[in-house]
Amino acid sequence: MHIDLLMLKRLQPSASAVGYYGAAGTFARTPFFLLSAFYGVLLPLVASAHAANNSKLVRDYTDILEELNLMTVTRQMEISEIIPASETEALLLKQLGAEPTHIDEVCRSSGLQISTVSSTLAMMELKGLVKQVGPMSYSLSREARQEYKVRMD
């Protein structure tokens, strides 16, 4: 127990005021405890890395990404053509477009049962081929890209 709380209990008979004072004191000491953990853990690690001569100069964020081998995460390969894994996927890909299509309409136009369409669309969504854009409405997740042309005047 702290001496300030003992003195406040003696001077202030209200228990709620003493409780508020104790809570405020604990809240005020929180940054000190957090920074103490930071200084106690991180600084020795930095000092040991510097002493072992494993430290590197960081000029910008790309140096950190390269050191952590995260540069490959920022690059994505574009899929030029969607290749369906089954005949059912091929049939469903023909039924879907850029605009949302309800699953009932896909069932009617494809002639497949709702269970087959639902499970196949769920797997195609996991593969990234389609996306659910509303309640039971699906569309292709990628549109065919057109070549960007610059007009020179």
Please describe what this structure looks like.
By secondary structure, the chain is mainly alpha-helical. Helices cover 55% and strands 7% of the residues. The chain is built from six helices and three strands. Strands 1-3-2 form a three-stranded antiparallel sheet. Strand 2 and strand 3 form a beta hairpin. The N and C termini lie far apart (81 Å).
Q: What are the SSEs and their pairings?
A:
Blueprint: H1 3-11, H2 15-51, H3 61-67, H4 87-95, E1 101-102, H5 103-110, H6 114-127, E2 130-134, E3 137-140
Antiparallel strand pairs: 1-3, 2-3
Question: What attributes characterize this protein structure?
Answer:
single chain, 153 residues, mainly alpha, Arc Repressor Mutant, subunit A, 3-stranded antiparallel beta sheet, 6 helices, 3 strands
| Tally of DSSP helical segments | 6
Count of individual beta strands: 3
Low-pLDDT segments: 73-77
Mean pLDDT, nearest integer? Answer: 79
Q: Tell me about the biggest sheet?
A: 3 strands, antiparallel
Q: Helix fraction?
A: 40-55%
Shape: elongated
- What class, by secondary structure content? mainly alpha
Brief summary of the model shown:
With 153 residues, the protein is mainly alpha-helical.
